[in-house]
Amino acid sequence: MATTSAGELAARLDRLPMTRHIWVLVTLISLGGGFELYDLFLTAYIAPGLVKANFFTPESLGPFSILAPYGVAGVGTFVFALFAGLFVGAIFLGHFADSYGRRTVFTFSLIWYSITTAIMAFQTSGFGVDLWRFIAGIGIGVELVTIDTYVSELVPRSHRGRAYAFNQFFQFLAVPIVAFLAWLLIPHAPLGLDGWRWVVLIGSGGAIVIWFIRLALPESPRWLARRGRLADAERVVEGIERRVAAESRTSLPAPGPPVPAETGRGTFAEIWQPPYDRRAVILSVFNFFQTFGYYGFAAWVPTLLIAKGITVTTSLEYAFIIAIANPIGPLLCLLFADQIERKWQVCLGAIGIGVFGMLFARSTLPAALIALGVAVTLCNNLLSYSFHNYQAELFPTRIRSRAIGFVYSWSRLSAALSGLVVAFLLNLGGVNAVFAFIAFAMLIVVITIGGFGPRTRGLALEAIAH
């Protein structure tokens, strides 16, 4: 029987058991995001190769060489270029998924990443690398916002936490892959091409699977219903229900009562209406500070190890071992993802980053450095999966992508600054100064989310939005 209510469609999705078909949809979205994570994290692993190739000399950096007096005219400019692009993509293009659909923007941004990153691989100066890093970052910024929106709208409410943990497991598989390739390739020049270029090109080659991923993904029925395309939304929901019923081999449970229909046009101004205004401020402050902890470590692992007196090749080996923990962390989070309130998971991750980070800064033994690096990485995983889930839950469908793009953009801005700040602190006071600042940033995260963030666990998206 045809459904004429967006609220009924949402209720039908939320009552579904989490069968193989829904997990496959989450996996396909996550695989697309894996290419983005590969590119995001290659910053840390190809940086030693770029330094070795003299890409960060004043002559090679061109206009960026003006930062030399501040001690950041090097790896810091490379990190800054990426996150400046992510900021532009998130804040100015984040609303595209609200206007053109989750599926369309997901595909477009992945193509953008593949092309621009391949161009970056053939640059011959530090300025050229930084410029194309910035351009690639714009596409990645749109992609990450769209993925968060997409997953939240397809998954039943009782399994959102596990779905986001599973999503990040697949995405973070890219981190040990890029770390291993960097360890293997960067000290060498296969076929006469610098190893760091091979690492970049391997990631950009993911474009060949884009259309296969896209063809198997439906558009978000919540987005279709919001755009007035109820017949299309009905077809998507019926298709999901049919597959889930066949896999569960039992009758589907009855839907709950439909939630009230959304009102509003989906404009930027609606973000600043109650209750979304308070949430936007909380998440903006949170996002600004969380990246100093997250990328302050993740994007700088080999460089921080080198600063502790470890050689380039050995630091890449240690970084690879630490990176293996990245996909393991989200798998561990599957054990409690929907049992613990989301906001407290965010706080636990932040506390762990601060504590283990300070211990890492004071350690010198290889085994301790690796163990503490793994501990920081696992806490990063907990923080990452839980806040991506959390911020996607706090806004309604009509402004979900736009609002996520806005609040998330503050993390992109601070991450851009973190490249400069970490480089400055590393030059000023070494690894201890870097992690003291990270601990302070994590304290702000705990106060912001723990003290003011609303609860969301087990609630329908539409109920949270109201």
Name the average pLDDT: 87
Based on CA atoms alone, the radius of gyration comes out at 22 Å
* Poorly predicted tracts of residues: none
Strand content: under 5%
Give the number of domains.
1
Q: Largest sheet, if any?
A: none
Number of helices, where a helix is a run of at least 4 consecutive DSSP H or I residues = 21
Number of strands: 0
* Name of the level-1 CATH class: Mainly Alpha
Q: Give the SSE order as H and E letters.
A: HHHHHHHHHHHHHHHHHHHHH
- Taking the alpha carbons of the first and last residues, their distance comes to 28 Å
CATH superfamily: MFS general substrate transporter like domains
* Named CATH architecture: Up-down Bundle
Describe the structure.
This protein starts with 5 loop residues before the first helix and ends with a helix. The model has no long low-confidence stretch (mean pLDDT 87). Helix content is 73%, strand content 0%. The protein is an all-alpha fold and 466 residues long. The longest helix has 53 residues, at 400-452. It has one domain (6-465): Growth Hormone, Chain: A, CATH 1.20.1250.
